Amino acid sequence: MYVAVKGGEKAIEASHRLLDSARRGDPGVPELSTRQIAEQLGLAVDRVMAEGSLHDRELAALAIKQAQGDLIEAVFLLRAYRTTLPRLGNSEPVDTGRMAIRRRISATFKDLPGGQILGPTYDYTHRLLDFRLADEGGSRDRNPAPEAERGPAAEEPVPRVVDILGREGLIEEESAPETGGAPPADITREPLRFPADRDARLQALARGDEGFLLALGYSTQRGFSNNHPFAGEIRYGAVAVEIVPEELGFAIEIGEIEVTEVQMVNQFTGNARTPPQFTRGYGLVFGHQERKAMSMALVDRALRCAELDEAPASPAQDEEFVLYHSDNVEASGFVQHLKLPHYVDFQSELELLRKLRAEFEDPPAEAAE
Amino acid sequence: MPTSTGTDPETAARQRWMAVLAKAEDGALEAAWDGLADRPGYRCLRPPETGLVMVRGRAGGTGSAFNMGEMSATRCAVQLEGGQVGIAYVAGRSARHAELAAAFDALLQQPGLRERLEETVIAPLEASQRARRERERANADRSRVEFFTMVRGQD
Prior knowledge:
heterodimer, A: alpha+beta, 2 domains, four-stranded antiparallel beta sheet, 13 helices, 6 strands, 37% helix, B: alpha+beta, three-stranded antiparallel beta sheet, 45% helix, extended
């Protein structure tokens, strides 16, 4: 039974005004611009774009400002906004082999074609608070981005590490690209079905919550599934996005986006059909997000257990568990719906409990025998 | 420039300028438009429309395709007074960017104008885009690890 209850409008209006003022903080402090957020909180913007599943730096910066820095709320805002826009088309698969590389490392080969390029990373920082950043303008003159003094080296191809292993046949071959077959699964249009194919899993993981995937990836390293992973390659940089508009019939580039790609290389002892070889786990996310892309690759590999005849024994290998709980908009909605009025539900629970208590304290005659 | 070329030279040339126009800054396109000696009139066949493009990747970089997430994009189609149609699809939500890119696409398809516009608009935009890419690559290259080995305990 639903009972309409009125009377909250004024309180809600007042709550909105309080929210505006809490968001603004001390009016004596200059207001943040979305441009500042996009430029100076770039990694937060990357996370919101990836989990919001919408690449648009300005919108993600606006969402972060509106959500007062609550990134999951910002993800929700982006997801809500995307539902208002039509789909203009699908891109050709991005070619990460032709990425304009800003960072590229391998933990499996020291010397490899294309080299190791550290790029902007926190990996080698001391994790000591830098109080110079606390002074306004204090960061202005220190450590400006290096300007190359020597002329740039000739552009050399940067082959994928897994392709180097592939030439010796020591790593499984990636499934062949489809030729004119069915388009890949789209979980924004069709609900997930189980068992899910790898395309649907990768889409869910790419937009999944970083914290959840990080914990699952960590669990695979600690013994909940046996992955034995190596970070074969991590690369971050810009890739071209191309579409083939129907009215043109040929591919055109519409712009570039930054992505992080991770190729995990995992031990595999082989089975009846397959010789011992390395297997793959793959991560690809918007922006510069290595922790997320590595976690995605670990979980992708764990979820391939059925295909590789491994007994699914741990949470990270259970695709229903992983894929039904990786979306932070759904998770947050269901957890937080508990805040909505449940007055009637609760009233009936209360009445039932009172009845049971009465029977417990004063049992009916036949039950007492 | 798109990877999936292999078409006729006419198409390849159009792919190239469409890519350059799509990646141009709004301000640079506006300045190029203002700099035209005789700006033609045009009407929008399809006014600028912002929507989403689903970006796809490949499992392992080379395997089967999957949907990675969407990006904002804006498209527009214009027709010049002379009848020539131009089309643009550009990343982001700038209506003006899509409209100007479509107008330039129409102009560039006119053989009489192409050479001059290639020289005065496309080539400079392309050069600045290439210079930016080169600068970023050179800067990233500064953080390239140069391994060396310490040889110890030898005569």
